[in-house]
Design goal:
InterPro entries: Bact_solute-bd_prot1. Residues 1-18 form the signal peptide. By secondary structure, the chain is α+β, with helices and mostly antiparallel strands. The protein has helices at residues 14-22, 27-34, 63-72, 83-87, 100-108, 117-123, 125-131, 136-139, 167-172, 182-194, 221-226, 248-262, 275-283, 294-297, 303-311, 351-366, 368-375, 404-408, 423-429, 432-441, 459-479, 486-514; strands at 45-50, 74-79, 94-97, 142-143, 146-147, 150-153, 161-166, 234-237, 240-243, 289-293, 317-320, 337-343, 383-385, 395-397. The chain contains 22 helices and 14 strands.
Amino acid sequence: MPKSINKPVLAVTAAALAAGLLNGCSGEEKNKAEAGQPSASTKPIEITWGIHFQANAVVNDSQVQKWMEQKFNVKIKPVKVTDASIASGEVPDLFMLGDPSNVSAYQAQGVLLNLDQAMVKEKMPEYYKDVESSNALFQTVTFNGKLWAIPMFIDLKPYDLTMLWRQDWLDKVGIAKLPETLDEFEKAVYAFAKNDPDGNGKKDTYGLTGTATSTWSAGFYSIFGAYGVEPTMWQEKNGQIVNGSVLPEAKEALAKLRQWFADGVIDPEFITDTQDSYRKKLYNNRIGVIEEQIGKAALDDGATVVAMKGVNPNAKLALGHNPAGPGGSGSWDWGIKSNYVVLGNKVKDDPAKLNKIFEILRAQSSDEETINMTSMGVKGTQWDFADSGAASGATKFLPGFEKQEQRDAIGVRLFSLGNITTRSYRDKYSNPKLNDAVRKYSSAPRWTDALLFAALPSDGKYKKDLTALTQKYFAQIISGEIPLSDFDKFVAEWKAKGGDELTKEANDMYQKQFKK
């Protein structure tokens, strides 16, 4: 990240916004403004907009951009936000960040505007009513007593992980019931590795693989969950905050995984595998079970189900629960936390722009027309309800817009702010069948970070290196490169290299901001 800019950032108050509202609003023009209609004499306000962080590239003057400009009487300059662009001083007026650590890093550089929670409540009343029920979300981006972002939330997460089995493999090896316990899981993955489930007469199958060094944690989330821990996650144990990486239960899980690897049950490529690569191995008869996002596999039109049909049309898939073990069951879960909306610090000098941004934010959170246009496009052209004639429920993209790049080309997603929508909107536009599947298979809210992944003061000094240290030791222990007893060596090294300091900070933050 670039060095701190050290510019003073002033708090924005509701009074400042009120002053901006008074400028040029009277009579007919005031009525138009209250009705959301631009005054003919009002010059469009220029807004630099950081496009959705998952979008690959800027599209200028897109259909959605022009629609937004007309509706809100603004002139938008879309930009792609990167660390390099921020370092060069190109800070958008409005953009989105994915994690509290991103907010913390940019706040430390002095490029963000600090906000007033009371102002958020005043300017976005519909959304605030929903998000305040999880008030701890504001604490994830509160540093030194000041709020630096508007948190998004998500109740039912289709990206929560559960087990996806090759049902045809279970049938082939004579397992009639989907595994639910860790013992049943073990029996199935051994059968996949030993009993030729693809019927080709070769010893070329494994039970499972992982993502040991390619993610934010150490992979094998459901197996660690069966022992009651999630490596790298802060967990509350007996009133104290501890890190799942160094708990005794993590050593127990490693012992189990180490045995599976030694017996040829775990794919030896687990160290370098990713979610994309292990999906392909499931499709191509190399492994028999993966951890998959519920939204990709619960319904017939789920991405993984569709991809399997394209590669291996005779295969059968079945969604199952995370295996229950001595510590319960569960997998990595991001909790209710979603992404964050932030404002550039220069907006503080322009009350009219600040007021306009909050007008847009309110619409992005509670106005169906705005939400639909920015996230799906035009009904009947780019999207429609999945059921013919329906006025609510699941939606689908129409031919010519099924792919994300097709939608990005017309500006759909670029100006969407994702999970900043109200619950009433989500209830109307969500798929009841998918919601039921998430409720059935998700391990939320039991499995998430006790601090909701808030950034600790010393994360920048230690977190990246400690995660890499955890991944290295765990991969070496599972693969048998080093003895299981080296786990104790790892714990000592983890603590000495910043873990103790982070643990103290985590407990301090928990007591001050998160303990109920």
